[in-house]
Specification:
Layout (H helix, E strand, L loop, with lengths): L6 E4 L2 H9 L3 E4 L16 E4 L13 H17 L5 H5 L12 H10 L6 E6 L4 H13 L3 E8 L10 E8 L11 E2 L13 E2 L3 H5 L9 E3 L5 E3 L4 H11 L12 E4 L6 E4 L22 E6 L8 E3 L17 E6 L16 E2 L2 H7 L12 H10 L3 H8 L17
Parallel strand pairs: 1-2, 3-4, 7-8
Antiparallel strand pairs: 4-6, 5-6, 9-10, 11-12, 13-14, 13-15, 15-16
Helix pairs in contact: 2-5
């Protein structure tokens, strides 16, 4: 979208294949072992987003234990001393030292033709390290800003907070002005107001209670229908030609409340009187509001569809992030006992949209590999705001289209 040609260095096989499918040039390599000389004198800007697993609150956070070693590696590399091997031997998490790799590249590049700008991203706990980078880059003639930004302030339907470093040799480095706020702000003497944060319902083009009806897959557990199935079932329902399948492994639908909706479960189909009408399928699951639960831990973030999502992250299990139903305001017409719909796993398409990737982005690999790529990525909409000023581009809301 920004019209820039980039060369990516990436270790993960499926991330490389996704980039290739998206038309991006990528070298599959260990970034800690790849030489810098191919880029000397040919680099306008450097984007560095080291792996966050060693530092993330979703992991063991051994990066915090290793932080003094990483600071030492950065200081040594900035002075032209490569002490990575001996420092790595003392690290509790081998990935920790990858946060020092950008300095190896920056030091080598600055011995020739300095890059015009640098942009780096990590989880919030890496901010002290970014401030160390900032001090060094200032001695090399860069204007530098380092701090925390919330992706929701830039139109991302997710309150993803990240430590950001921006450096420039040609302009004052500063964070881009936020375009959104938790509450809408009117226009004033100092400029245009900010729009309210983008909700998940807006980004996904759902209503407050919309959610695809779950089906039962061979692997067990409720899964959203594949693309197109929701419309196919709705058309069949409306034409009166749809009937549930028979068999122990078939989809069994049970009414929640009168004709309000259906719930999926495994099990033999109960006997149905011949004169019983076919069940009604609907994407509005009765008197429920849907929310997104970030993981299966007791303290997991739960956000309603009318809010941005919490920070999306995915571990080895692809079903940590689920849609859960919460009762809406009670109504006198509602019966006293209701069957709560089962949680539904988020799809890669939905997760990608909540990261502001296009709905048809060509993710490659297994479902777990795709989720890992989405969770590790910087939301493109945030990235565009961060990079555009350094590419002398102006962005406005019309430049972005949230995928539906």
């Amino acid at each position: 979208m920004l019209g820039v040609r980039d060369v990516g260095l990436e270790w993960d096989e499926w991330a490389c294949k996704t980039r290739a499918a998206a038309g991006q040039l990528t070298i599959r390599t260990d970034v800690a072992g790849y030489p810098v000389w191919p880029f000397l004198g040919m680099t306008q800007g450097v984007i560095a987003s080291p792996p966050c697993q060693a530092w993330s609150m979703a992991g063991k956070r051994l990066g915090l234990v290793d932080q003094p070693l990483v600071h030492q590696a950065v200081a040594d590399l900035a002075a032209g001393r490569d002490t990575r091997a001996e420092l790595l031997a003392s690290c509790r998490d081998a990935r920790s030292l990858l946060a020092a790799e950008p300095m190896r590249y920056l030091h080598a590049l600055n011995q020739h033709v300095q890059p015009e700008w640098v942009a780096m991203e990590e989880v919030p706990d890496v901010l002290p390290l970014w401030r160390q980078y900032a001090e060094i880059l200032r001695t090399w003639g860069y204007s530098v800003w380092a701090g925390l930004l919330n992706a929701a302030d830039y139109g991302v339907p997710q309150t993803r907070r990240r430590a950001i470093l921006l450096a420039s040799r040609t302009r004052v480095a500063e964070p881009p002005p936020p375009t959104h706020a938790k509450f809408a702000e009117p226009e004033n003497l100092f400029g245009p107001g900010r729009a309210p944060w983008v909700s998940m319902a807006q980004a996904l083009d759902w209503g407050a209670t919309d959610r695809p009806v779950p089906t039962v897959c061979a692997g067990g557990g409720p899964e959203p229908f594949p693309s197109g199935s929701r419309k196919t079932l709705a058309d069949a329902r409306d034409s009166g030609h749809w009937q549930p399948q028979h068999g122990a492994d078939s989809l069994v639908l049970e009414p929640q409340t009168r004709d309000a909706g259906m719930t999926a479960r495994h099990g033999p189909r109960p006997a149905t009187p011949a004169n019983t009408p076919a069940p009604t399928l609907t994407s509005k699951a009765g008197p429920w509001k849907w929310a997104l639960r970030s993981n299966n831990q007791a303290n997991a973030t739960v956000r309603s569809l009318s809010e941005p999502a919490g920070t999306l992250f995915f571990g080895r299990r692809a079903n940590e992030c689920t849609w859960v139903a919460e009762p809406a305001a009670p109504s006198p017409q509602d019966p006293p006992a209701l069957v709560v719909p089962e949680p539904i796993r988020i799809t890669t398409r939905e997760a990608g949209i909540l990261q502001t990737f296009p709905a048809n982005y060509p993710w490659q690999g297994s479902k777990s590999a795709q989720f890992a790529q989405i969770g590790n990525a910087v939301p493109p909409r945030l990235a565009a705001h961060l990079l555009a000023p350094h590419l002398n581009l102006a962005l406005n809301p019309d430049d972005f289209t949230l995928a539906a």
